Amino acid sequence: LRSCSPGRARLTNASRHAYLVARFGDIYAQERLDAETLLRTYVSDMEMVQRIIYIAAVESFHAAKMAYRHFKMRVRKTLSLGHSGPESLEDTVLDYIVRHEDLYDVQASVNEVIHSMNMNPKISFPPETDFIVISSLIRELCRVAFSMQTLIPPLDIAFGTDGELFNETKYRRSFDSDFTAPLVAYHVWPALIENDTVIVKGEAVTKR
């Protein structure tokens, strides 16, 4: 049986959407720059610093989406045992997750992200230190990415590759870019997308 009245998740969808998009922007404006400043004390090459932060963002979204999928499967399995309506099981599951987001083990995702970054051949770090120094940025990104999965439709980040054709609708050029160069040398920040449509531009560096 389906209920005519929407559940908590659907009723709060618009306000949660607005908050999470704004929070993503805040992380770009504040936590990202804090992490940049911190990394500069260990890594002199600004390009490497920006690559590290971009990969941290990409890996955070990946880890949070995987965690959400597993969390949702566990919740669905538990609630399906006694579910009888009036809401659909899917709506009941979503309502439960929205109410209990604090049960998300964000530290496990942070550890996963740091492990993935240590394996990534595109970034390197001085041997005497560790990517754990930017764990507060990773934690905030994981939290936001997890919450974004509870939206209808969920939000995600755009896939980006070095050497791709620069796309005006997806990215802004960094101030130190060659503004005539057609290709992306590397990415600074991912674009945020909803149903394959860019809703917040990312940032990229173009060079010849």
Give structural notes.
The protein is mainly alpha-helical and 208 residues long. The chain has one domain (8-154). 51% of the residues lie in helices and 12% in strands. It has helices spanning 8-11, 13-40, 46-80, 89-99, 106-119, 135-148; strands at residues 155-157, 171-173, 184-189, 192-194, 197-200, 202-206. Helix 3 crosses helix 5 (106-119). The N and C termini lie far apart (60 Å).
Residues in β-strands, percent:
5-15%
- Give the N-terminus to C-terminus distance in angstroms: 60 Å
Helical stretch count?
6
Number of strands: 6
Structural class based on helices, strands and sheet pairing: mainly alpha
Radius of gyration: 19 Å
Count of folded domains: 1
User: What level of helicity do the residues show?
Assistant: 40-55%
Average of pLDDT: 91
Helices and strands, in order, run as HHHHHHEEEEEE
Global morphology:
globular
Unreliable stretches covering 5 or more consecutive residues: 1-5
Largest sheet: 3 strands, antiparallel
InterPro entries: MIEAP (IPR026169), MIEAP_C (IPR031981)
Protein name: Mitochondria-eating protein
Family: Belongs to the MIEAP family.
GO molecular function: lipid binding
Compact description:
This protein is mainly alpha-helical and 208 residues long. The protein is built from six helices and six strands. It starts with 7 loop residues before the first helix and ends with a strand.
Write the layout of secondary structure elements.
Elements: H1 8-11, H2 13-40, H3 46-80, H4 89-99, H5 106-119, H6 135-148, E1 155-157, E2 171-173, E3 184-189, E4 192-194, E5 197-200, E6 202-206
Parallel strand pairs: 2-6
Antiparallel strand pairs: 1-4, 3-6, 4-5
Helix pairs in contact: 2-3, 2-6, 3-4, 3-5, 3-6, 5-6
